[in-house]
């Protein structure tokens, strides 16, 4: 995937009585003799990790009557005490208090419902509808999005928000986050005009299968293997682009508040590109070594990496196999011709197993083997909106670290638990970096420091690149300063990132700055701003610039973003 190359060419600090130094700030601790600034946030104190668990019965219906003592939670194999417990149901959060007594079960059994003591309005949930037009046929896509358009009118209600995204070699946001179901349905309808890329893949596979079938004397094994390898290489290359695009988009969701998920719609992604062809060759040519050649194209590591990205970003994947029901004889909707039973079965499982794996590993659901996705969409919404929050004390390690989670029920063996099996503990700098990258796509409304960001006119430089001046203005009164010899010193870290309208984005750039003021001049200076000026090196395009500022003494952080056009876009 092409990227935006952002280089911070230079930084200048402007402002009266202030000097700039590139120094490593002191370790985070409560500022001693702090002058000005906001309050200190202690990120090393014991925090609460909330595990969200959906519970369903044998029919897939949500179970909402369980109590805190019904759950067992383990982190890295060690039991954890559940200290926070809540039931998320519909538009409310129910938090039973200590001493609640559950009513007796209704006649005929069933799970009693605890008497709630506290109900509160929940925060918004964010759900992305992502249709992979590169890996779907038009027929299958239109059947699914027609049903989705009906579903969103029933499912989308404030404060929840949905977004519509299309992938076809690059990700395009067709409708930003909104609580208006008509806007979502309209964006889904516009997708009906898009071309589906999977038809070409199916045709290419069919041609190789036809060659194998027509080789009556079975004398062209090497040629058949060569065609299968060529097909597998191309499909693995395409899969690499798809997974990278999904990873980048998932990473941008990391800074969103609250619960967030993606409904991913496609005709599936191959766990091992070309696997079905190698099986077909083994069957037709009686060559037991054919299957071993497929191992070169195994993509399990790619999907494992995507799961890690979702875990890091706290994003749940719900997946839909748009192919629906398929005949064991391999009768395809496009040509109504039967294929080898083995090839049909392997194609179905090879492209479907990835969807099941991604959903299972991220705590979501996979909707497969159905022509009507309506009931599946309802199950997704039930899972997304009705769940238990089990909070336990997490003592931060001070590093970005992967933890494994296990949740069990005491009793009720008939119930199914759905939750994310891993999570990544993140340091404050990592969380701030996540928010900056999120600001490239989604608005991040958090600005306690009161920073303002502006840009100047882009100037052409070498080749087709431009330098774009970016100014970050921070009120001095918002920055904590501490005595440092003859100075009052403060420290800020500034983060920069950029993304263009074609979906190409930069890596994150960050620079640390030490700010110094003479003690006798502080009162005069505190009512002013200081400005950190940087020059970003960009190609021509329309950009969203995202900036983050962290006060290193108080751990307070602010975020801002803006859109700018660089160079002559039409001339690219």
Question: Could you explain the architecture of this structure?
Answer:
- The chain is α+β, with helices and mostly antiparallel strands and about 575 residues long.
- It folds into two domains: about 10-45 and about 430-570, Sandwich (Immunoglobulin-like), CATH 2.60.40.10; about 125-385, 3-Layer(aba) Sandwich (Rossmann fold).
- About 25% of the residues lie in helices and about 30% in strands.
- The protein has helices at about 140-155, 180-190, 200-215, 220-250, 275-285, 300-315, 340-360, 375-385, 430-440, 520-525; strands at about 10-15, 20, 45-55, 70-75, 80, 80-90, 90-95, 120, 125-130, 160-165, 170-180, 260-265, 315-320, 365, 385-395, 400-410, 415-420, 420-425, 450-455, 460, 465-475, 480-485, 485-500, 510-515, 530-540, 540-550, 555-565.
- β22 (about 480-485) and β23 form a beta hairpin.
Characterize this entry briefly.
Helix content is 26%, strand content 32%. With 572 residues, it is of the alpha+beta class. Helix 1 (138-155) packs across helix 8 (374-385).
Distance between the termini: 18 Å
- Provide the helix percentage: 25-40%
Structural class: alpha+beta
Count of beta strands: 27
Main beta-sheet strand count, sense and barrel state: 6 strands, antiparallel
Which class of the largest domain in CATH terms?
A: Alpha Beta
Q: Using only CA atoms, what is the Rg?
A: 27 Å
Could you tell me the mean pLDDT?
Answer: 85
The figure for the number of domains is: 2
> What is the third-level CATH name, the topology of the largest domain?
Rossmann fold
Strand content: 25-35%
Full CATH superfamily name of the largest domain: von Willebrand factor, type A domain
- Which word captures the global form? globular
